[in-house]
Amino acid sequence: MSPLTDGNSLPGSQRDPQPTLSRCKATPSGCNCCVQGASRVLPVCVTMGIKAALPKYEIYFYNTVLCLAMFWAAGWIFDVSSSSANRKTFKTSVKPGWYYFGRKMDTADLEWMMWFSTFRAHILFALSGHVLFAKICSMLAPQYRSLVYMVYGLLAVWTSMGWTYVTLILSHCILLYSISLVKIRWLCFVAGLCTLATFKCEPFVSWQAGFVEGDFELRHVLFYGGCGFTIMRCMSFALENCERKDGNYNILELLKYNFYLPFFYFGPIMTFDKFYVQANKSDLTRKEWEMWNISLQGLIHLGVVIVVDVLFHFMYILTIPTDLKLLKHASDWALVGLAYFNLVYDWVKAAVMFGVINTVSRLDHLDPPKPPKCITMLYVFAETHFDRGINEWLCKYVYNYLGGNHENVVEELVATLCTFGITILWLGPCEVVLIWAFLNCFGLNFELWTAKFFSMEPFASFEMAMSEAMSRRIRAIFNTLNFWTIVLYNILALNSLDFAKLVAKRLLLKGFPITTIIVMFVTYCLIQVIKERERGQALIDDPDPLPPAPPTNAASPTAASPTAAQPVADPSKEKAE
C-alpha cells in the first residue's frame, strides 16, 4: 500500500516515487563504488564489481539455498493465512474469492481491486476507445494524431469528471504556461511547487475538490491523480521552455502533452522533451517484430494479473501486516517473508499497472518510461525506486541539475535534500512519509560517503591485491546489510511504522543470533545471484576483447619478434582492462 495520510491507498500515479538518483551510467548496477562516478575508481568497479566470476558450483549452491528459503517462508505465510482466515480483523479485507478454489481472497489493496476487478470494464473501455481512434487517425491523417489524442483525452476527462474539473485543469495549465514565458527557471519551480501544495493542504484541497461533479467511488482517486500529474507535466513543460533558445512552445503543445489519456490519471510521467519529439514524428513505421513484442507484453501482464489473484487466495500478505496481535505470535520466517513479499508485490503492481498503460502508448508509437526495477534485484539505495517516470523527472530537473558530477559531498547532500523535499510534497507530508524520506536520503548519502572512504588508501590497494572472486564476496557481505536496510526503510511506507518496528526487532534483537545469521546468509545468496545476473548482462553489453590473432607469416621479421609487434603493457592497466 502506498504511503498516504489516513492510511488510504493512492492512485497508481502517486506510488512511492523514490528516485534512483543514479550517479554512474557507464556501468550496470551492482557496485557501491559506482556512486562516485570517479574515473580512478571505475576500473575497480568494473573488474571487481560486475565481471568478477565465481565457480559454477558456488552459484548453483546459492540458487538452491535461495529457492528453498523462498518456499520455506511462503509455507509459513500460507499456514498463517489458512489458520486466520476467519479472524474478526480480517472481515473487511478477506472476502469470498473465486468459486473454483473454495477459499477467501485478500482484497486489502483497493488500488489493485479498482484496476482489475471493480472498475476493470470502465478502464478497458476508455483505453480501447483511445486505441481505436488513434489507429484510425494514424491511417488517415498521421500528422494530426497528437491533436486527436488531445481531443479524445479532453472528452474522456469531461465525461468522467465534468466540465468544472476540466476548467480547473485548464486554469492550472494556463497559469503555469504564462509563467513559463518569462523563462526564469527558479520562478517556474516555485510556481509549480506552490500549485502542487494547494492539493496537499486545506482549505485549498476542499475548495478545488468542489469542482468535481458527482459522487462516484473513483472520484477521489481520479481527482488527485489527474491534478497531481497535471502539475508535474506543466512544470516539465515550463522548464523545457526555459531551456529553449528560439521562441516559446505553443500552449497547444502543452494541452496535447497534458491530455494524453493513457498518462493523464495514473501516469507514468514522460518529460515534455521526449513526448514532444515522439508525438510529432512523421515516420510511423515499426521495427521488425515490434507488434509481436507489444502483444507478448500484453499477454504477460494478463498472466501476471491472474497469478497474483490466485496467490491472494492462499497468502494474505496485505491483510496480515495490519493485525499486530497476530504478528506477535507469528514465526520469524513468516515476518521476514511478509516484509520481503510486500515489497515484491508492490513492484509487481507498479510493473503491471504501468505496463498496461505503456502497452497502449507503445501502440501510439511512443517510448514510455520502463517499469521499475524489481526489489529482488536491488541492493543499493542509488537504484531504489517504484516509479521510473517520477524518478526520471526528479533526476532530470532536480538531482542531476544540482548534484553536478555527484563527486562533491556537499553538492550531493543539497541535491538529495531538494529531491526528497519535492518527493515529500508529491506524496503528501505526514509522519510516515517524513520518516521514510529522511531514512532513504540518509542511506543514499551514506553510500556516497562509504564509497569515498573505501576508495582511499590503503583500502583501494587491498582490494586490488585480492582476487576478483574474493572482492565480489566481500562486497556481497556489505550489500547484504544494505539490502535489509532498504527493505526496512520501505516497508514502513508501504505498510506501517509499527510493522517495520516489529520486523526490525524480531530480525535484529529477539531473533539474534540464529534468525539473524540465517536470514543474512540467505540474503547473501540472493545478492550473489543478482551479481551473477548482472555479470551476464555486462558481458552481453560490453563483451571482453578477443585475444590477438596469431601471426600469419612466421618467417617475417615482425612475426619473429613478438616484442617488437606488441608493446609491453602496464600490469595495473592490463588488470583494469
Automatic annotation (TrEMBL):
<keyword id="KW-1133">Transmembrane helix</keyword>
<feature type="transmembrane region" description="Helical">
    <location>
        <begin position="433"/>
        <end position="455"/>
    </location>
</feature>
<feature type="transmembrane region" description="Helical">
    <location>
        <begin position="338"/>
        <end position="360"/>
    </location>
</feature>
<comment type="similarity">
    <text>Belongs to the membrane-bound acyltransferase family. HHAT subfamily.</text>
</comment>
<protein>
    <recommendedName>
        <fullName>Hedgehog acyltransferase like, b</fullName>
    </recommendedName>
</protein>
<feature type="transmembrane region" description="Helical">
    <location>
        <begin position="298"/>
        <end position="318"/>
    </location>
</feature>
<keyword id="KW-0812">Transmembrane</keyword>
<feature type="transmembrane region" description="Helical">
    <location>
        <begin position="259"/>
        <end position="277"/>
    </location>
</feature>
<feature type="compositionally biased region" description="Low complexity">
    <location>
        <begin position="552"/>
        <end position="570"/>
    </location>
</feature>
<dbReference type="Pfam" id="PF03062">
    <property type="entry name" value="MBOAT"/>
</dbReference>
<feature type="transmembrane region" description="Helical">
    <location>
        <begin position="146"/>
        <end position="168"/>
    </location>
</feature>
<dbReference type="InterPro" id="IPR004299">
    <property type="entry name" value="MBOAT_fam"/>
</dbReference>
<feature type="transmembrane region" description="Helical">
    <location>
        <begin position="112"/>
        <end position="134"/>
    </location>
</feature>
<feature type="region of interest" description="Disordered">
    <location>
        <begin position="539"/>
        <end position="577"/>
    </location>
</feature>
<keyword id="KW-0472">Membrane</keyword>
<keyword id="KW-0256">Endoplasmic reticulum</keyword>
<feature type="transmembrane region" description="Helical">
    <location>
        <begin position="59"/>
        <end position="78"/>
    </location>
</feature>
<dbReference type="GO" id="GO:0016746">
    <property type="term" value="F:acyltransferase activity"/>
</dbReference>
<dbReference type="InterPro" id="IPR051085">
    <property type="entry name" value="MB_O-acyltransferase"/>
</dbReference>
<feature type="transmembrane region" description="Helical">
    <location>
        <begin position="476"/>
        <end position="495"/>
    </location>
</feature>
<feature type="transmembrane region" description="Helical">
    <location>
        <begin position="507"/>
        <end position="527"/>
    </location>
</feature>
<feature type="transmembrane region" description="Helical">
    <location>
        <begin position="174"/>
        <end position="199"/>
    </location>
</feature>
<feature type="region of interest" description="Disordered">
    <location>
        <begin position="1"/>
        <end position="21"/>
    </location>
</feature>
<dbReference type="GO" id="GO:0005789">
    <property type="term" value="C:endoplasmic reticulum membrane"/>
</dbReference>
